[in-house]
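pasting for the record
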Amino acid sequence: MTGGNDPYQIKTVEELRDHYDEAMDIVVRAKLKALDDYAIGFIAKAPIVCIGSEMAEGVDVSPRGGGPGFVHVIDRSHVAVPDWPGNNKLETMTNILSTGRCGLLFLVPGNDLFLRINGDAIITRDPDLLARMTERDKTPKAAIRIAIKECYFHCGKAIKRSKIWDAATWPDPKGQPSVGRMMVDQAKITDMTAEEIQEAYEESLRNNLY
């Protein structure tokens, strides 16, 4: 069902605001224009961040991970996300080149908070900056450098509802099809078996992380 066919669709900001309560003043005031010590401490513990970016077709979200604190705090107004080996589709960086902006969502395992950053972004090959993000004796090819416009902590209700840190609620991974099987079926691959693709995938996870 598209928007035009939904008689219950909310179409204006005024309708949206009428449908919800006003945000608490304390929440609005906690949205900062630069990193404070709490944000810097959270980034130092975060092993994963999701990057939101815009493309012609809409929006895109992509994960990045590394050792805790792998996102480098340059100063209170700038952070840098290293680009480690991936699928080489380069979608996030292509989007940034087009729009010049992105959003970050940080997670720290066991912590019931998110940290969100929005700002202007560039792709850089600055050798000094890249050297400061070395992991396992490897240096990233490039980095996404963000000039912060907004920085704030987001409440953890989504984390609480999801129970993501509660191992007792995790599904049995044995019920999940292998990456090899999904790729064969989705991409209609005929020159490799699911087992061969799975083996190559696991090899990449072992030896091509950095």
